[in-house]
Amino acid sequence: MTVTVRVAAALGENITLSTLCCLHGLGTAVSFFTFLTLVLMTDDADANSIETTDSPFSKLPDHLLIEIFVRVPHSEWAQISSVSKLWADLFRQESLWRTALFGTFPSASRTKRWPGPIPRGLSKRRYVALCISKHILTSDGEMDEIMGHTYLFLKEQLQLSTMAPSSGILHGTIIDQFIACGKSRDAAHELASQIWLAVLDNLEENHNTFLLLKRFAQEGDVFLPYPYSRSIKVQWRVFEKLFTDFRDCFSGADYYDVLACAKAKFQPIPSAWLGY
Length: 276
Description:
Elements: H1 3-14, H2 17-20, H3 32-41, H4 62-69, H5 77-81, H6 85-90, H7 94-104, H8 123-135, H9 144-158, H10 167-180, H11 185-201, H12 207-218, H13 232-244, H14 252-265
Helix pairs in contact: 1-3, 7-8, 8-9, 9-10, 9-11, 10-11, 11-13, 12-13
């Protein structure tokens, strides 16, 4: 299905005739079928034609284009934004992301800024954070947006081009965030563990991730009071990914060093981790 057909399908499902009558230069009584025909006339193979004065899309005001785009599944947005410079510019505007945010997550308009070290960000980041909470963390409650922002914070820190902070520092920052938002120590520790596990499971499988996980596995244990102590579940997942997803990345010396760290933390260790 072409980009314009997907846009047209979104129009058919969500745009009313009264909205279509807002089209500039197309008259005041445009039927949906007329507009659908104009949409399908646009050739995806010639993206430049969209920006010409003869293109039906050139007659649409930005606010109507935004209303159309936010009704297309967000999985298609990257492709839609690559059709023309005009559309790419719209996807960089705060107005599009604010429309998408409040249209998809109406409760976001009532969310107040929260205390703590992890900021909320603008509409695009808020939209992404709420999508992560819904689809990756399966969170649905008062903490859903904060959970998404915390996920983004941790993943970005782990993917820094320079060396990421130690896992203890990152874990402490996340714990501070949830405690600042009124969570108990137990709840903060559980939420932090959930986010760590989700981020670890969604890191790209490349050499940089291998080096990061190996460094976390070899970090020395520093005594910290609960809930700032690192989760056993998270430490286990680090070793599990190293010995399963990244086994081929090890040299002989690296493998036995990490295996010794695993044996010092866990007894017994799974047989699947053994054997280089």
